[in-house]
Design brief:
Elements: E1 3-8, E2 15-20, E3 24-28, H1 31-37, E4 42-47, E5 51-56, E6 61-65, E7 72-76, E8 82-83, E9 85-87, E10 92-96, E11 110-112
Parallel strand pairs: 3-11
Antiparallel strand pairs: 1-2, 2-5, 3-4, 4-10, 6-7, 7-8, 9-10
Length: 137
């Protein structure tokens, strides 16, 4: 089912709109995505048909291509938020799930590159949960 979603960076300098279908939603545990996200994994949506339209701030978007690889990361040069990019010579749109502003119901398709998974990324559902900051912060 085709969707229309909007997204932005943290500082709202960059805004965009995407219309189309996402074929997959991967939680990638490779070392490159962990470095990109600063977390246990990246959460990225992929589409070979959806259309990306920049609403504002496209000139503030920077793209880093890791030499010798197909690894690409686009980000806001002001706040550092991950931003969508076009990969594989224009054939694939990659959208960081956290960059979307709309409620989005697609569930992740799979965890990938779990051989590279961080050693502390186990049984996380068992640790305490808080609605906001814990009292000791």
């Amino acid at each position: 089912m085709a969707v229309k979603v909007t997204g932005s960076c943290l500082c709202k300098m960059i805004t965009f709109e995407i219309e189309g279908v996402f074929e997959s939603f991967y939680l990638c545990h490779c070392i490159r995505c962990r470095k990109d996200s600063g977390s246990a994994h990246a959460a990225n949506l992929f589409s070979s048909t959806a259309k990306l339209k920049w609403i504002s701030g496209q000139d503030n978007r920077k793209t880093f291509n890791l030499p010798g690889t197909q690894h690409t990361k686009s980000f806001c040069s002001t706040c550092g938020s991950a931003m969508p990019n076009i990969q594989m010579e224009g054939k694939l749109l990659m959208v960081p799930a956290g960059s979307l502003d709309n409620a989005f119901s697609m569930k992740p398709t799979a965890h990938i590159f779990i051989a590279d998974k961080a050693n502390w990324d186990e049984n996380l559902e068992k640790i305490p949960r808080f609605e906001g900051l814990p009292g000791n912060l």
